[in-house]
Write a structure and sequence with these properties.
Blueprint (H helix, E strand, L loop, with lengths): L9 H14 L7 H17 L14 H9 L10 H18 L3 H23 L5 H9 L14 H12 L4 H7 L8 H18 L9 E4 L9 E6 L2 E6 L12 E4 L7 H13 L9 E2 L13 H16 L5 H12 L3 H12 L3 H8 L7
Parallel strand pairs: 1-2
Antiparallel strand pairs: 1-5, 2-3, 3-4
Helix pairs in contact: 1-2, 2-4, 4-5, 9-11, 13-14
Length: about 375
């Protein structure tokens, strides 16, 4: 079978994919995951000028797919390895369902695995590059013994140093309540700083791009919100990537952390952002450059994060890699032991976590 060169019926495609996965005794994909696969598929197909009546289905033209992927324009310049991996993962999944040539399918699988290994090397590298060291020196940041990109503690420290660097827009913003941010680059720096301050303690995906800020009490059954309450700032996500059911809503209090703390920064940021309400009077957490009325989409938000992380942290880390870095470090050694025990006792890692990793604390 073939999917159309441009997929427009998402529901039908989702059903086809999950029916195939059911036959293979695999769990169904989430709706948002399929949406991303379709978006990647459509973009590559369009870039290759693929047609429904082509003699050779474009997914079977592996070399042409790779060439097309390399030339897709990106707002951050050259397409990133993370984006390439997402494209390949999507095309591999679509190729599985379409049952394309097994040798071609293996090429997609091998390339995806190679990209995953490359990402793991980035996470586990033990030394800073010269570019990263120059950045750290400029921020008067001293690297402690054993500190490297396999942890996120150094990111906390760089953000704290930036808030104390009197040359930075972040410092001016935090120390002068009447400081008016007029330069676009300063707006971008402050917006990036606030985003990373949240992501340091809460490894959200790209859902922050759709968040509005408010201090009004409400149930907020629709949309995504940062709400200022007496107990601090809370985040409410009704629409997020991992949502499966209509009632699956995220509502949690953000971690404040050591002083000056996240609440301090969010209070200042909210006072500033209130001057940038959209046409409906809502206050966007982050919006497109030079456009106060329109939020970023997830793709542009991801590019915004990676571009600024490369500029200020020395590495184009996105939300996905940030999550992997943090949890790889946090669970190092634990999961490998669980996996080893699971293999020896003929059960899955999921079974071990759900049935044997009990919480015995009383409270």
């Amino acid at each position: 079978m073939r999917f159309p060169s441009q997929i427009t019926n998402h529901e039908e495609t989702t059903n086809l994919i999950n029916e195939w996965r059911y036959k293979q005794i695999q769990s169904p994909l989430k709706v948002q995951s399929v949406k991303q696969y379709i978006s990647s598929y459509n973009r590559i197909s369009e870039h290759m000028n693929a047609k429904d009546d082509d003699d050779v289905y474009f997914l079977n033209r592996f070399d042409d797919v790779i060439k097309a992927m390399e030339t897709i324009p990106s707002r951050v310049g050259k397409i990133t390895d993370s984006t390439k991996r997402n494209y390949i993962s999507a095309l591999y999944q679509m190729g599985l369902v379409c049952e394309i040539d097994i040798n071609i399918l293996h090429k997609y699988s091998q390339l995806r695995d190679d990209m995953n290994k490359k990402q793991d090397k980035i996470i586990k590298k033990s030394e800073f590059t010269e570019k990263e060291m120059n950045l750290l020196n400029r921020l008067n940041y001293t690297v402690t013994a054993g500190e490297n990109l396999s942890t996120t503690q150094w990111m906390y420290n760089i953000l704290d140093n930036m808030a104390q660097d009197n040359e930075s827009a972040v410092y001016k913003f935090c120390s002068q309540k009447d400081y008016y941010i007029s330069e676009e680059k300063d707006k971008q720096q402050v917006g990036w700083f606030m985003t990373m301050r949240i992501l340091m303690d809460h490894r959200f995906r790209n859902d922050l791009c759709s968040v509005f800020m408010t201090q009004e009490e409400d149930s907020y059954e629709e949309g995504n919100w940062l709400v200022k309450r007496k107990t601090g700032w809370h985040i409410i996500l009704n629409d997020h990537k991992t949502k499966q059911e209509q009632t699956e809503k995220i509502n949690l209090k953000l971690i404040d952390g050591p002083e000056p703390g996240l609440n301090f920064y969010l209070d200042l940021y909210y006072d500033y952002k209130k001057t940038y309400k959209d046409a409906e009077g809502k206050v966007p957490f982050i919006n497109k450059a030079n456009n106060v009325d329109e939020l970023m989409d997830t793709k542009r938000f991801s590019e915004f994060i990676m571009k600024n992380n490369e500029k200020y942290l020395g590495s184009p880390i996105g939300t996905k890699l940030l999550r992997k870095m943090f949890y790889t470090d946090k669970y190092q050694g634990i999961i490998s032991d669980i996996k080893k025990d699971a293999e020896q006792n003929l059960h899955s890692v999921g079974t071990a976590l759900n049935h044997y990793a009990k919480n015995h604390s009383k409270g």
